C-alpha cells in the first residue's frame, strides 16, 4: 500500500479541500500517514493569498527529501506558477478543488509521468459527498460555495478559485445530516466569501442558515468570513437567524480600511458607514456577539490621514479581534 502525506496551507476552504484530497486517496487504497518522513508521495495543498504564506509553502516544499514524489495542488500554482517552477521540485502541479481527480494524478506520478494541469477551478464544484479525512472528528468544514463575486484590486485568489458557484441548500443540508450521523457536533461554513452564498442560485446565506437551524440534532454552526457589501441587503434576516442557539455568536467582517477613498481604490463595494451600520445592528440585537475584522496597512495610495481614519475606526468600533496585514503585491493584481 503506497503511503501518502497530505499537508494543507491557508484558509478553512483550503483545509476542506485537503480533507477531500486525503479522503479520496484513502478511498482509492492509499495509506495516509501523519509524518512526512513515512510517505512515498507528498501532496501539498497550497495557498498564495499573501507573500509570507507563499514563502512558507515554498519553504516546506524545499524540505521534502529527494526520492519522494511531490504533488503541488491548490491556489498557488495558478497565482505564481513561475516561482514554483523555478524554485522547487515537483512531479505534478494542479489547481484547487481537485477532488477525486487527485487519485489519477498520484497514480500517474507513481508511473513516472510528470503532470501539469493549470486549469483554474471556475468550472469545478466537487461533490459534497466525496470522502474526507477530517482533521478533527467532531468538526466538519463545509464549503458552501467556491469563488466569489468581488473584484478586489489586491486579491489574487480569484485567479485560482474563479467566480461564484454555490451548492444548493439541500446539498449542504444533506452533508450536515450525514456528518451528524458520524458524530460531528460543530460545522464551519466556509467559502471565499460566505456572504455572497447563493446569489447564483436565487437564495442567500440567511436562508441557508434558517434551513440549517431546522435540522434536528445537537450541533453548532460557525459562519465564515463575510464581505460587508453582501451583508447589507440581508442584514435584518441575518441578524434574526444569528439569534438561533445553533449559530455561534461570532462574525468575521473584514473592513480592510477606515478610509472611503482607500476602500474605493481597493474596489471594496461598501463604505465605512456601511460597516459601522452592520456592526451596530448585530450588537443592538446580539450584545454578546464577537466581532473579528481585518485591516490592510500600506495599501498603495494610503497616506497618514487615511491610516489615521482606520485607527480611529478601530478605536470607535473596538472589534474583539483585529487581524492586521501589511499590503503585499500579488502577481497579476491591479494593486500590484
Describe the fold and architecture.
This protein starts with a strand and ends in a 10-residue tail after the last strand. It has two domains: 3-117, Rossmann fold; 139-326, tm_1862 like domain (pyruvate-formate lyase- activating enzyme, Alpha-Beta Horseshoe), CATH 3.80.30.20. The chain has helices spanning 12-27, 51-62, 76-79, 81-87, 101-110, 157-161, 169-181, 205-213, 228-231, 235-242, 260-266, 272-285, 304-317; strands spanning 3-8, 31-32, 41-46, 69-74, 92-94, 115-117, 139-143, 145-146, 165-166, 186-190, 220-223, 250-252, 290-297, 321-326. The protein is globular and about 60 Å long. Helix 8 (205-213) packs parallel to helix 10 (235-242). The model has no long low-confidence stretch (mean pLDDT 96). It has 336 residues and is α/β, with parallel strands linked by helices. The strands form four sheets. It has a six-stranded parallel sheet with strand order 2-1-3-4-5-6, sandwiched between helices. The longest helix is centred in the N-terminal third of the chain and has 16 residues, at 12-27. The protein contains 13 helices and 14 strands.
What is the structure about, briefly put?
The chain has 336 residues and is of the alpha/beta class.
